[in-house]
Amino acid sequence: MTSFPEATVKASRNALILGIAVILASIVLGRTYAFFVSFLVFSLFITILWRNNPRCWIELVSISSATPIAIARQQVACNLVFAFWFVIINLRYFFRLPRWLYLPAILAIFGIMTSAINWLVIDDLIRSVMRQAAYAFNLFLAPFLLLPIVYMRLSESRDHRANLRGLLFCLIVPSALILIAAKLFGSVANVWEASRHAESLSEGFLIYKLGKAYISFQRTDVGFILAALICASTAIAFSRVERRYRIIAGLCLAASIFMLMATASFGSIFACLCGLAAIFFKQLRNTNIVGVIAAVIAMCCMLLVIYAVSPQNIKTYLGKRYEHRVVNRDMDRFRLWAKAVDQILKKPEGVGKTFEVGDDKQSLWMKIERRTVIHNDYLAYAVSYGIIGGLGYLILVCGLLVSFFRAGKSMIKNPAAYAVYLAGLGVIVAAAVNSVTDHMNANRWYFNVIWSMIWYSYFCSHSIKTGINEDSKSA
Q: β-strand 360-362 against 187-188: which pairing, if any?
């Protein structure tokens, strides 16, 4: 038996409505004090009210991860505000995390401390502290501590259908809807910046304005969240779950494939293919081979149809990107990684959160920028928080990979539970690969949605090892 209090369908519906209201408020109000203050009060109130109603609270937090507006000047992701209040109220949950997670978390915290040697010794101390604290809160403490604390109670759940609904309707659908709405109905907010690139290449540098929210479609920013959505949607769309869930996941899958093609992020596309390969490999070992082959054929047909109906500018952009990355075999990543390694050797203690390496050269008349983007999360964390912090991130990713592959050996035969497990497996495999060639943390909204899907699926997968199928009770 489990002590996890399952929510009623009505209570979950209320959480869904509240989450949608938060997203709509952010789009309508934008970055205003009216939204910031009201959200802070609301998030604290609802956390206190629902602290003993984990299903509804987790679903609300999951939906809020898709909120495109970050809170306050230093931009703290909305779902992490919920997590912060929850930790303040329930500090004991810090000591209930999986034991293997404490090692990378300790390394992460130690890396933040050692890097302070470099980013504290500057003129504008207060601004530097606030900036680095926001980075550490959003991009380091979130995946190591805050998000695991949000989702850890799901390991006690035995309602696998409810877990599937939560993943689909609270994490996949909201983000996919906002992204496709921005792509189809938003207005381009950076026309001049995009126009600086060749017309056929501007697709990879667009930022859309939806209401008062800005949605980045720059390929380094948006590429991986689309890859993660494709992996998670595929896991549900081609599993033996209820048809309505497969149809909704299939629609999200088609929309995400179209948008990923529009960005033409080859690193994210490759990572996505690796995640899909892991999903189909696991299905091959646990289901009928004919079904897996049919799923792969269906994916290929969907890809061809979407490409055929795509606008000509997207096809032209894809062709140019293919020529650049494949035909010309551009090797710029190795040059960038070499600079990052040099930076690590110069300052192994870290320099504070940064996505770039290099120095600024001062000429007689002007300052010449000679800094370059790293395009590798493992190296970026090591540059930012030292060798110790970089090791912490590597251990986190490897620990999750091992945990997901081990969890697959003790699965109960439940389609909904297995679909959630496959979604998490696909996303973490894609994350491990994508972190080699790009920055998964280039956008805080996208970053927290990705890690929310990973930790949501992780703890749901741990609930299925010895779980009792109670889906019939939640029908």
A: unpaired
What six digits make up the tokens of 243? 């048809």
Average pLDDT estimate for 348-375: 66
The answer to whether 436 and 376 have CB atoms below 8 angstroms apart is yes
pLDDT score recorded for residue 43: 94
Closest CA to 434 of 355, 356, 354, 377: 377
> Has residue 2 got a pLDDT over 60?
no
196, two tokens? 């600086």
Q: Which of 168, 207, 134 is nearest to 63 (CA)?
A: 168
Amino acid at 364: L
Q: How many helices (H) and strands (E) does the chain have?
A: 19, 7
Q: Is 124 exposed, middle or buried (0-12, 13-18, 19+ CB in 10 A)?
A: exposed
Joined tokens for residue 440: 């998964």
Q: Which residues of 265-296 are buried (b: 16+ CB within 10 A; e: fewer)?
A: bbbbbbbbebbbebbbebbeeebeeeebeebb
8 A C-beta contact, residue 278 and residue 230: no
For the CA atoms of 316, 377, 149, 32, the dihedral, rounded to the nearest 10 degrees, stands at -60
Query: What whole-number distance in Å separates Cα of residue 170 and Cα of residue 15?
Result: 9
Q: Any residues with CB less than 8 A from the CB of 279 and at least 6 apart, and which? A: 231, 234, 235, 422, 425, 426
Q: In whole angstroms, what is the distance from residue 206 CA to residue 264 CA?
A: 12
Residue that wins the pLDDT comparison between 109 and 220: 109
Residues whose CB is less than 8 angstroms from the CB of residue 282 and which lie 6 or more positions away in sequence, other chains included: 408, 422, 425
Helix (H, G, I), strand (E, B) or coil at 213: strand
- The first and second tokens of residue 32, run together, are 């205003």
Name residue, tokens 């921005």: 182
Measured distance CA(30)–CA(422) in Å, rounded: 36
Joined together, the tokens standing for residue 448 give: 């927290």
Residues linked to residue 369 through DSSP beta bridges, in sequence order = 360
Query: In what helix (H) or strand (E) does residue 372 lie, and over which residues does it extend?
Result: strand 372-373
Q: Give the alpha-carbon dihedral of 402, 403, 408, 410, to 10 degrees.
A: 120
Answer for the pair 55, 5: CB distance below 8 angstroms, yes or no.
Answer: yes
- The predicted model scores a pTM of 0.89
Neighbours of 94 (CB within 10 A): 13
Strands 356-357 and 360-362 turn out to be: unpaired
Coil, helix or strand at residue 423: helix
Closest CA to 418 of 278, 284, 276, 241: 241
Alpha carbons 309 and 315: distance in angstroms, whole number? 10
